[in-house]
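Quick log. Single chain, no ligands specified.
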Amino acid sequence: QTIYTSILTKDTQTYSRVCGRTQYYYETIEINVENSSIYRFDSNSSIIIYGYIYENKFNPFNPTDNLVTRSNYSCGGYEFQFTAYLHSNITYILVITTFHSNIQGPFSLIIYGSNNITLNRTINHHDECIIGDRCNSYTKGIGLTLDDILRNEIQRNTTINNQSFLIKISIGLTIIIFVGGLINSILSLITFQNLELRKVGCGIYLLSSS
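-> predicted structure:
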């Protein structure tokens, strides 16, 4: 058996485990096995925790992608227990998070199976970012926002030329609207510098609004 111990703190990564504004602390653990076999995962904690296993990569913005298996909440206690068949030539990501949002605390994992198993804690570096956010969560507001339209489209550390077509179109339209509004304001100011035009009520209004 292999034992892994850690703790979820205020400095731990967070994500939206379920749809909504609430945040869940989580830890990602990279798993590699030398022998393809069935492994059993048991937990021990003073808080109710969940366990998820992903193949190759975990995307906090789409928690269902690459999902292999997950633990089920037991009404009888805080611990979970589940089994998974792991292949030796595949890297797996074990995600440990909580049942309730904004909960921190220690936990231990006991993994039964072949002794040739490697566990390494990893920090999830996000390849995708949400406009107007800190690359850690997705919040749903009222109406259609840029988050809804461009969610997961922006690629971090990537030039504009290598961004998706949707991002390029959005940037282009924003620039066109901004330049058009700026030109309109300048022309309005130039036009209504004429004293005769400003004597008319609409002329005064247009000058002040520009």
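Residues 160-209 form one domain.
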